[in-house]
User: Which sequence fits this backbone?
């Protein structure tokens, strides 16, 4: 079967599956280059065919969810009840996101793409089903089809497939698809451009390693040209002044300088110290003045181990419980000395900044030494790493409780959702007044998944440590844990 690439090119992907899985790792390692290439191609053809089937299944899930929402709306109207605002697409994306361990937003885009390919581009889907068109090339055609009117997608697909496409590289296939869309509707490209202008966005996500963050900007091309031109011009100046500096590093430095020179930035850092119930807390700072180190740490007075600065807030507001103790100086090896109280803080590990990335101890030290940075201190559970705080009893959470819940959660608590907790609503796990307004009965939910809990048949339970167990309408369960401030990310099971 794998004697040559040509034999694999004409083989049925279903037949390739058995042959591929019959090979051991040792057998593959012993193959000559020609047969190894044939295995690579066979694996890709099988993967392409499998993804096509996954797209069909995604479309089926979305269609069934649409039918369910429609039927529930009819039933609710007949009974005089309020109609749920949760869409079938949102239901499908939420359910599948938990299964595939991606964010619901990402899954929503994938489901929409799958519906377009399966329903509107059947010939392209058939090529993928046969293993002849890889997922990235299918996605390129589907993306360009957005510029064609819905009632002319059949014409768009016919133009794309007027010549052979299986041999075309992705970039060439995308260009052909773009020309096909322009021919179908010359004016639609303008309308699509106006639509996507409203979707311009800047996002931040963790980079490839600790201390690196990737900022992605989707901008209108004229704006992007001006922005990049300014960055590139300043980077050229930096590169000339610093021979040997990579131009990419110079552009990053130029971008940061241009932004910081035109903005007033206020940074607040929350230091979270792991503590046990038996420790005595200081009257103002809420942290122990005794040693809080792990076994093996020297028991010196005024030594606290700070594993995390869990959040960077754009607010310098103080509520009387968290106190600004800025003005720290570095002593050595990451140990900080606070001027007035003589407290010392040891930064022992890299620090997670939810949705952005992580910091090295030296980064935290530099931030803590900055007199313009506001520092808040709070405490965390020494076992789970979740932030703890005293809870109010009123219906609406007070500022301290709200901050504690969002600090504990880090992100929306729905499985796979990465919406920052600062942009989420606070939800009573057990509805008030049956459930109290406490940290252990409150969770952060984005607006979409808040609706899931109340209108889409999902249920959630929370234990005393803040671990949430979600139950889907079909009975499947998923578990999400609080943001671990001791160095681990929120877990989803």
Assistant:
């Amino acid at each position: 079967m794998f004697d040559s690439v040509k034999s694999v090119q004409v083989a049925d992907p279903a037949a390739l599956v058995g042959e591929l899985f019959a090979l051991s790792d040792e057998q593959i390692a012993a193959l000559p280059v020609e047969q190894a290439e044939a295995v690579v191609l066979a694996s890709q053809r099988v993967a392409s065919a499998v993804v096509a089937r996954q797209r069909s299944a995604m479309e089926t899930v979305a269609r069934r969810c649409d039918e369910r929402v429609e039927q529930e709306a009819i039933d609710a109207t007949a009974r005089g009840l309020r109609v749920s605002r949760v869409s079938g697409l949102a239901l499908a994306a939420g359910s599948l996101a938990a299964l595939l361990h991606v964010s619901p937003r990402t899954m929503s885009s994938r489901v929409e793409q799958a519906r377009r390919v399966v329903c509107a581009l059947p010939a392209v889907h058939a090529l993928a089903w046969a293993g002849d068109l890889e997922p990235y090339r299918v996605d390129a055609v589907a993306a360009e089809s957005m510029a064609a009117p819905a009632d002319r997608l059949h014409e768009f697909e016919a133009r794309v497939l007027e010549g052979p496409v299986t041999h075309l590289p992705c970039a060439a296939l995308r260009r052909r698809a773009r020309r096909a869309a322009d021919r179908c509707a010359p004016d639609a490209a303008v309308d699509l451009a106006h639509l996507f202008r409203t979707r311009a966005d800047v996002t931040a996500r963790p980079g490839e390693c600790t201390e690196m963050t990737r900022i992605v900007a989707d901008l209108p091309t004229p704006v992007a040209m001006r922005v990049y031109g300014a960055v590139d011009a300043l980077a050229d100046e930096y590169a000339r002044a610093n021979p040997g500096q990579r131009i990419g590093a110079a552009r990053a430095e130029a971008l940061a300088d241009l932004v910081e020179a035109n903005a007033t930035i206020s940074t607040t850092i929350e230091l979270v110290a792991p503590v046990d119930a038996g420790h005595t807390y200081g009257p103002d700072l809420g942290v122990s003045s005794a040693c809080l180190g792990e076994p093996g740490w020297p028991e010196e007075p005024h030594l606290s181990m700070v594993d995390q600065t869990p959040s960077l807030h754009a607010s310098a507001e103080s509520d009387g419980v968290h106190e600004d103790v800025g003005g720290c100086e570095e002593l050595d090896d990451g140990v900080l000395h606070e001027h007035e109280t003589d407290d010392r803080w040891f930064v022992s590990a890299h620090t997670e900044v939810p949705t952005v990335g992580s910091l090295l101890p030296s980064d935290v030290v530099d931030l803590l030494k900055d007199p313009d940075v506001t520092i808040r201190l709070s405490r965390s559970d020494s076992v789970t790493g979740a932030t703890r705080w005293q809870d109010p009893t009123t219906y609406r959470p007070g500022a301290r409780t709200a901050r504690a819940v969002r600090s504990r959660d880090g992100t929306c608590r729905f499985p796979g959702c990465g919406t920052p907790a600062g942009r989420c609503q606070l939800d009573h796990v057990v509805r008030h007044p049956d459930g109290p307004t406490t940290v252990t009965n409150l969770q952060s939910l984005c607006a979409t998944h808040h609706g899931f809990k109340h209108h889409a048949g999902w249920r959630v339970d929370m234990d005393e440590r803040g671990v949430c167990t979600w139950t889907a309408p079909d009975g499947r369960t998923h578990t999400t844990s609080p943001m671990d401030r001791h160095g681990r990310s929120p877990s989803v099971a």
Q: What stands out?
A: Residues 5-197 form one domain. Residues 33-78 form the longest helix (46 residues).
